[in-house]
Structure of Enoyl-[acyl-carrier-protein] reductase [NADH]:
Amino acid sequence: MVIKPRLKGGLALTNHPIGAKEFVKRQIDYVKSQDKYKGPKKVLIIGSSSGYGLATRISLAFGAGAETIGVAFEKGIEGKRTGSAGWWNTIAFDEAAEKEGLKYKNFIGDAFSFEMKDDVIKFIKEEFGGKIDLLIYSLASGVRTDPIDGVTYRSALKSTTKEITGPTINFEKETMEETTMGVATPEEIKSTIKVMGGEDWKLWIEALDKGGVLSEGFKTVAYSYLGPKVTYGIYKEGTIGAAKRDLEHTSDVLNDFLKEKYNGEAYVSLSKALMTKASAVIPIFPLYAALLYKVMKEKGIHEGTIQQKHRLLTQMVYGNHPVIDDERRLRPDNWEMREDVQAEVEALWDKITPENFKEISDYAGAREEFMQLNGFDFDNVDYDADLDLEELAKLRP
Ligand code: NAD
Ligand code: NA
């Protein structure tokens, strides 16, 4: 079967397994082109299959020689469905790790469940040397079933202040269009906090602690976003922002607990805006990203997912140059948030129209990144190749 890209708005309906290999390889190549670093030996990554979690795993494995356990929710080939991007990314990671003799293990399923926590802890005890030094929490999900009350919560991408209308990119139609973000009900705010707040991160730490699998000096980092003024309405002051503030509060609670018991640490890291599966569907966000790329590339300070996470790990979490704000948050978004960068983004934002957006923004760069998330638009992959889906279906992460 020949797999072609098929989009629906900010969603990709198809994924290319060979392109995913290239997607992962380029990130590995970047890490290998940099100095090796002394980091953790045993790592658990929740949300390991794409975006920031995958990049983190690649940096830790190929840069610091870490053994990694990845947890992700992904699907393989089913009938005419070509499998999810994270499925193929994980298989590509496995193949590369195997070649280097790097130990890894994947758990594909629901990280929010108690069952998953039990399975991972059992594995750590029986086959992973008994302890982990680092937990990365990089989940992005629209739905969570609370394992305690059994209720399924859905997150809403809505405003908490007033209805907001603004431009965004439609990658399917290649147009700039107006989107409207409605106002969330109190229920919707609560549900979004349930899904994307800190509750599940805390449940993981509690389960791992009870299981006796945390090492002395154990660290945990959860990924968050804040963003600048132009996105405040949709992000900082949106339902997702409310959930992220909850995550940040949780980091303080966990930090106190871990410090006391393990001489450990818990942090939230505010990352740079990037195109990922999760961010591509946030209203207004893709257009902001395209403008940001334009400005940051011109200034020579643009980072992709892997550069951003590699800098966080080598300079901040395992280095001597942490950028930390007065709310104890790690700030690898410091270049995005620079005043000169934001001033230029704002000036472009005021000028942008549906007619000029491709020239004014780095539309091409943002679109390429979006396509590459799904294994498309690599210049060295043959997209006319007839892939043997039956053979590919035998592969498992
Ligand atoms: P992503 O969609 O690329 O990755 C999400 C990961 O979560 C995937 O590995 C997916 O399999 C996993 N996942 C989702 N539901 C799951 C479940 N129920 N059980 C197990 N795994 C599940 O998203 P991303 O952009 O890399 O986001 C990761 C984190 O980084 C999020 O907290 C996000 O807010 C944060 N972040 C993203 C950006 C950005 O611009 N993309 C910026 C700053 C921070
Ligand atoms: Na991720």
